[in-house]
Design goal:
Blueprint (H helix, E strand, L loop, with lengths): L2 H10 L6 H7 L4 H11 L25 H27 L4 H11 L9 H14 L4 H9 L2 H6 L13 H11 L7 H10 L3 E3 L5 E3 L9 E3 L2 E3 L3 H10 L1 H15 L6 H11 L5 H10 L16 H11 L2 E3 L2 H11 L24 H12 L16 H8 L8 E3 L1 H8 L4 H8 L6 H9 L5 H9 L8
Antiparallel strand pairs: 1-2, 3-4, 5-6
Helix pairs in contact: 3-14, 4-6, 5-6, 6-7, 9-10, 10-11, 12-13, 13-14, 15-17, 20-22
Length: about 450
């Protein structure tokens, strides 16, 4: 397998490679490389920054005093910020590489947001645990999670007054896609999810007095269906497999959907819905390595930061600045913009983010100045923001591990450094610029390369 294809594999199934890692993989076949990705991601290691003991004293929120409520909210904000940073650090230093990449993908598929740190931590680990498992089991566990029950109003879905929000999004966003169900299917399936709730520790519970045990008609079938029955019927629809395959293809391969490739994937995925089997097929396919797909994807903000860290390991001296940076770039983990998640692709780059993205290597590696405007989602109040604004510095302070960088890059010629850092085909302007740059040391040359528009692609 040639270097270009290895790098492509590790950019799409991971977060890039450094020269030493690339060198170790050069002699391996495609099958060996892909098998190793699955082998190292076989287990799932949960992230834990909070325990139920942190919040169990506040079981009945309505009975709390005003000060107790504020303290609980402050604790949750701090813990969610801690979880955000822990997740980014996991992405920076993944031992289960493919699983972490898949977790990031699923987080923008099963979109969810919660102000309870313990519950959203559980949800994040549900994504991680099921990322390479069975999609049907995945949908059921996500649907029964405390965070999703709150986020899509399943808690308010009762026999006396059905709430259709979860049933609609289950089909529209999670399983079938727009236009592949009828309004009657939404109304009938909403009845099947009545009474779904959770205990304070996040465990699922069915409130039987609130559940509709009557007959429902769903996708032409009639029965006393519960929520799990509805999910099983959805999984029987081949459109569900097609919808998921298109989402995976758009994320890992190209936003230009190839119908023949999708049909091939659907045949692998349906009816057993084995995510590992599907991803194994995709990563081993010949078309995954087509030149048209290499260097064609705009990096998400998290991918961009992770790629820079892969070149020069970073440590944010003030971890809150890592959260501010995510917000400024437009992708703050645990804080999706809406229930549909981030659109990705061209939407990552606009007039507000382009110059920041181009300057980001210098900001993180060369102490360039950045303005950190805006209110963080994890700050207490607007008043707190105003109070903190005077203390907030106008630059991001990081500690860079240049020793690791030198170990990887110090003895490499400019052409090799270029081939490692840039996946996309160079424009004429970039080619001219690179011929004019004097290659005096790898550090400055890398900063120049990472500041090119081509570095925004992988």
């Amino acid at each position: 397998m040639n270097s270009k294809h290895i790098q492509h594999l590790y950019w799409r199934a991971g977060f890039g490679l450094n020269p030493k890692e690339l060198e170790k993989l050069q002699e391996k076949s495609k099958k060996e490389l892909v098998n190793n990705l699955f082998l190292t991601s076989k287990k799932s290691s949960p992230i834990k920054v909070t325990a139920f003991s942190d919040v169990e004293m506040y079981k009945n929120f309505k009975m709390l005093t005003s000060d107790q409520k504020k303290n609980l909210q402050k604790l949750n904000r701090a813990k969610i910020a801690e979880l955000n940073v822990a997740w980014v650090h996991r992405i920076f230093n993944p031992t289960e590489l493919l699983r972490e990449r898949m977790t990031l993908f699923w987080a923008n598929h099963f979109v969810c947001k919660d102000q309870n740190a313990f519950h959203i931590q559980q949800f994040n680990n549900i994504l991680r645990k099921n990322a390479l498992g069975n999609f049907g089991d995945f949908v059921k566990e996500v649907s029964k999670s405390a965070s999703m029950i709150k986020y899509l109003n399943t808690k308010q879905n009762k026999k006396q007054s059905p709430n259709e929000n979860f049933a609609r999004e289950l089909m529209e966003l999670f399983t079938l896609g727009v236009g592949n169900y009828a309004e009657k299917d939404i109304k009938e399936s909403a009845r099947a999810f009545t009474g779904w709730n959770y205990k304070p520790n996040g465990d699922f519970i069915l409130r039987t007095k609130q559940h509709d045990f009557g007959e429902k008609e769903f996708f032409g079938e009639t029965g006393k269906f519960n929520g799990e029955d509805i999910i099983e019927i959805i999984l029987q629809q081949k459109q569900c497999s097609k919808f998921i395959c298109e989402k995976i293809y758009s994320y890992f391969v190209s936003t230009n959907i190839n119908a023949a490739h999708i049909n091939e994937m659907v045949d692998v995925f349906y009816p057993n819905y084995d995510i590992s089997k599907l991803m194994n097929h995709l990563l081993l396919s010949k078309w995954f390595y087509n030149d048209a797909f290499i260097g064609s994807k705009i990096k998400s903000p998290i991918e961009l930061i992770a790629g820079i860290n892969n070149t020069v390991p970073l440590k944010f001296e003030k971890e809150k600045q890592l959260i501010y940076l995510q917000k400024t770039l437009g992708q703050q983990l645990l804080n999706p913009i809406n229930v549909a998640g981030w659109q990705g692709g061209q939407s990552w780059i606009d007039t507000n983010t382009l110059m920041l993205r181009l300057k980001l290597p210098s900001i993180l590696l060369n102490n360039a100045i950045i303005s950190l405007e805006g209110i963080s989602e994890f700050e207490d109040t607007y008043e707190q923001y105003l109070k903190n604004r005077k203390k907030r510095k106008t630059y991001i302070k990081t500690t860079q591990n240049w020793d690791t960088f030198n170990l990887n890059y110090s003895n490499l010629p400019s052409k090799q450094i270029q081939s490692i850092l840039l996946s996309a085909k160079l424009s004429e302007n970039a080619q001219v610029l690179l011929t004019e740059i004097t290659f005096e040391n790898p550090k400055d040359y890398c900063l120049q390369l990472m500041s090119l528009p081509e570095y925004q692609l992988c």
